[in-house]
Design brief:
Elements: E1 3-7, H1 17-32, E2 39-44, E3 57-60, E4 75-80, E5 95-99, H2 112-127, E6 130-133, H3 136-145, E7 153-155, E8 178-182, E9 204-208, H4 214-226, E10 233-237, H5 241-250, E11 253-256, H6 265-271, E12 277-279, H7 285-289, E13 294-295, H8 302-314, H9 319-326, H10 331-345
Parallel strand pairs: 1-2, 1-4, 2-3, 4-5, 5-6, 6-7, 8-9, 8-11, 9-10, 11-12, 12-13
Helix pairs in contact: 1-10
Length: 346
């Protein structure tokens, strides 16, 4: 029987978008599997074997397999879930690769990481049989900056997780009303523009996520000190899913001023709670936020950002419009689109 392998090795990285993507898409692929589809096999870390039910097969991931990857006989297609994967089958097996973003191309041209990553991604594209990305903005970047050799580049939007019936309060509950930012703490996430938004109010700013750039985290604190709000800017580190939903449910507003995103899932997660969402107008964010979010001044001038925040906090949000917008982004729709691509390739 023909086998389709979905590479979920990124499940080993909690608190990341890749983990969420693999977990949610794998569950929906199982639920949406057509009756005439190849047998689905999930390539997962040992802790996740059996997690997606008995109707699929499991391949055990091991780090040594970057040197030699054992592949089941009769494998008709390998879906590589991330452009960063180091686990590739032999060249005889067709590969669908999901490229989530090429955000490094928005760095300054002099940045050595830009050229380095560009070479690596071009190698991924060369090996792929077909490419999927998660927004029209990312597709434009791929077609602009890379030679795809005429290969198909499809857009399949990510979905959002349903709000849990109950949420877990964090160990330390904020004492004051708060604004919330969730993302990796790195320069292209642009968090240093947020402290001025605390001027003239009694709100805290909670910044959740792993600190990837410690020097940049210090810059954020220095900016908060410059605006005399350093006591109200709090780094809370990575948060588990249940805690994340608690913060989203209880925040006054969600802030996402990122300069480069492949998708921007936290924007949709905050909209699920009908919270005012404020984000940049860069890359994929206007596509994902649509008319349901408020956009900061393109130059991130403090006075203009403060005016946008004040306006948004006082606005009456249309829950009907938000629900209609969110209905475009479901994991079942994503899985259905992927199954269509799988069957076209096989």
């Amino acid at each position: 029987m023909r086998t389709l392998v979905f590479d979920c090795e990124q499940l080993r990285k909690p608190f990341t978008g890749f983990h969420s993507y693999c977990n949610n898409l794998a569950r929906s692929l199982v639920n949406q599997s057509p009756s005439d589809a190849p047998r689905l096999s999930l390539y997962v870390p040992e802790a996740f074997i059996g997690s997606f039910g008995p109707s699929v097969d499991y391949l055990r991931w091991h780090s040594c397999q970057k040197f030699y990857l054992p592949v089941p006989a009769h494998t008709a297609l390998w879906h590589c879930a991330s452009q960063q994967s180091k686990y590739w089958p032999s060249s005889r097996i067709p590969v669908l690769v999901t490229i989530h973003d090429v955000n490094f191309m928005h760095m300054e041209e002099s940045n050595p990481r830009r050229a380095h990553h560009r070479r690596l991604y071009q190698q991924v594209i060369r090996r792929a049989t077909r490419i999927v990305t998660i927004s029209e903005a990312s597709k434009r970047d791929i077609l602009t900056y890379f030679d795809t050799k005429g290969k198909s580049v499809d857009v399949v939007y990510n979905g959002t997780e349903a709000c849990p019936a109950s949420v877990q309060a964090p160990a330390v509950v904020p004492e004051r009303p708060f604004l919330l930012n969730i993302n990796r703490i790195s320069r292209n996430k642009n968090v240093h523009v947020l402290p001025p938004l605390l001027v003239g109010n009694d709100l805290d700013l909670l910044i959740a996520g792993p600190v990837e750039d410690k020097a940049y985290a210090q810059e954020i604190l220095l900016e908060a000190r410059r605006w005399k709000v350093e006591e109200r800017v709090k780094f809370i580190g990575p948060v588990h899913t249940a805690e994340k939903h608690w913060y989203l449910q209880h925040c006054q507003a969600f802030l996402f001023p990122s300069l480069a995103e492949g998708f921007g899932l936290p924007v949709l997660e905050a909209l699920q709670y009908y919270k005012p969402v404020f984000c940049s107008d860069r890359t994929s964010l206007p596509e994902v936020g649509g008319d349901c979010v408020f956009y900061f001044d393109h130059a991130f001038q403090p006075e203009a950002m403060q005016a946008v925040l004040e306006q948004g906090l006082q606005a009456n949000l249309s829950r009907t419009a938000i629900d209609a917008h969110l209905s475009r982004f479901t994991w079942d729709k994503a899985a259905s689109a992927y199954w269509k691509i799988y069957q076209e390739m096989i």
